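Duplicate of earlier report; Dihydrodipicolinate synthase family protein input re-posted below.
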Amino acid sequence: MKVQWNGVYPALTTKFTADDQLDLDLFAHNLEAQLSGGVEGIILGGTLGESSVLEVDEKERLVKFAIEQVAGRVPVVLNIAEGSTREALKQAELGEKWGADGLMILPPMRYKSDHRETVTYFKTVANSTSLPMMIYNNPVDYKILVTLDMFEELTECDNIQAIKESTRDVSNVTRLINRFGDRYKILCGVDTLAMEELCLGAHGWVAGLVCAFPAETVAVYKLVKAGRLEEARQLYRWFLPLLELDIHPKLVQYIKLAEAEVGIGSEQVRPPRLPLIGAERERVLGTIREGLANRPELPELDAVAAH
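Output:
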């Protein structure tokens, strides 16, 4: 299925059972909630998906299961976050073999590559696959900034089509558009900056709290794109305390707690992560429950254009 890189793309959490196996039944339940909410693609094996602790056979099962469940309704994108070019090439090959529709790729993990190394890494992987790719630009968490000059060199690769913009600098959306026009699709990758970046021209939102609140996330996107900014502002103001759960080192635990609280997930994480306990859990749960207590009625969106 062709990836358009528009709209809301949830970075899905990976569901686990109490004995640390993939919980595909619960994954399917959450996936249906996302599709019912109006998302336009899904991303597997990202940071929220606990990619660093997933085994290759588990990624294969997730991708193939998701493709079967989605049944062509939206594209399925697989994340690549590897320390070596060799392993990234292998993951790209496997993703294509398993039937993924696209790839999201981070710069090399653990080693802080320079300009030439970063560009060479992305080009090498892009040239190895026919799948469309989105580059995940997150220097805050992963220490490598993909600069405008790097993106200039990467225009040579037709299948590098999109950017997950997570620099935390909303001005970068405008810089990218000024420099590249419509060459790249831009998707906001930071929940707390999503409305701002969509107003500046971002095409989509790679979202985190969507895992627990799909309808509200899609509503913010659609309202902004329809120019219904006051309605979007009111919804976003309600949403912001919840969205802030996405910008904490324990975002996986926080968002999984939210999923559990709304009935479309569980708190099970894979060690070394551990479920929240004590005062921290109560604090996060308080934020979630306050949001649920004041959950707004969503405006009519059937007639709102998606893009």
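The domain at 7-293 is CATH 3.20.20.70 (TIM Barrel).

Merging into the original ticket.
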